[in-house]
Amino acid sequence: MAIQPISWSPTGAVRILDQRALPSSVITRDLETADAVADAIRTLQVRGAPLIGIAAAMGLVAAMRDQRAAPQPEFLQRVQQLAGLLGTARPTAVNLRWALDRMVRVAEATPGDSEALWERLRAEATAIWDEDRDMCRRIGEHGLRVLKDGANVLTHCNTGALATGGIGTALAPIYLAHEQGRQVHVYVDETRPLLQGSRLTAWELMQAGVSCTLITDGTAAALMQQGKVDVVLVGADRICANGDFANKIGTYGLAVLAQHHAVPFYCAAPWSTVDATLARGNLIPIEQRAAAEVTVVAGRPIAPDGMTALNPAFDVTPAGYVKGFITDHGIVQPPFRS
User: Fold this and answer.
1) Residues of the chain with pLDDT under 50
2) With respect to CATH, is domain 6-138 assigned 1.20.120.420?
């Protein structure tokens, strides 16, 4: 994929593609502090469960760059402090905390002075990024099994290169099918209220030359009723031990529609998205975001002044609606264990 949502800058900062500006502008930003990275995650400059884990790990390294001469105990204490700060940026996606916990464990287990610890942290953050790229590819390879030639796929939110370190999760099988010459068409849910489908997924698919059609979220039911959807592929921000999973708001509704119309519904995510410490979906913390994301679009009010709005970022889909979980370990079924 030519799309590169994150990288190291020449000066060692975290360079991100600001996803708020897409598709009209391609803007990159260099982030040098933990506060800047946390703000980028919180404000959706960087988004997608795998990518925010990568960004947090890299942000920890960038923020610790000036601490390399500090005494080792002081360095470790600062790592733990900044990991705590970054970990609160968004509450639902488990990859954020998973990546930061991994970074802290590495710091605590590495002997030597602060310079050696910093070098080890940089290597670990880069490894998390590289591993995600490989995981995406494996998800795509396993997911090819559910995509026949000529398939019409319905997807929700953005689960491609903009959300990961590689070619994506739920979009990965689509990209590999296209690469192999299979005829695949994607119906792209716009994904209200922040339009990650129309702004990001549609842009990605068009960049890659994949046949796609943008639809309003409310059109999905009619398409299924007309027999125009062969399979639904969505991502996940957290998967519980029993297979209940949280994903972008609107996913649960698609799952209910898919079951009613006998359309196979799959969830695609890396194994790191499984949180076996949570038994079931009602234990997942659901992020509540600002009402203005619902009442304002592109700076223009679309509701009466002073109107309140409910804006949960995610909903929870019960495991019973899912035909299979497409992971880097294969297509699997719950229950899941760590």
Assistant:
1) none
2) yes
